[in-house]
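Please go through the sequence line and token line underneath and see whether the fold suits the sequence. See right below:
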Amino acid sequence: MTIVGFSFTKMHVEKLGAARGKVSIESNVTITAVDKFDMSVGTSKQDGIKFSFEYLTMYEPNVAEIKLAGEVFYMNSVEKVKEILDQWKKKKTVSKEVLVEIMNACLTKCNIQAIVLSNDLNLPPPIEMPRVRVTNADAQLEVKELKPEVKESKPKK
């Protein structure tokens, strides 16, 4: 399975009011449609699938929202493409293996774009960013989730 393309079709960001107190930030991605698409590769055509999605980040209570929509283009064998399209048509679901790859592609691109848009409107980023902090008297630096074993060097006397 291969993701061969990604594009945004809609971007909307709106600051609804001032942030007062604690702000809750929640994000969600939803697959809205699964359609067949034909891709020309050289002189031949190959079957593929276009996954349409919507990404939404809400800043609560009623502070802001970021809405993104787009498409992920996916290619596989003719049999696998037919199987995915049939499953979507009958049950509006996609197999876990395919869904994981599609959702990870969406989240990677959308989270990056949402960080840029939130920065433009002076909103907190929708995902927690790593931070450096001093944790003890030896002045070891610790990056949250990434814990390097680096000590600050002391000047020689």
Summary: Confidence is low (pLDDT under 50) at residues 147-157. The first strand starts at residue 2 and ends at 15. The chain has one domain: 2-128.
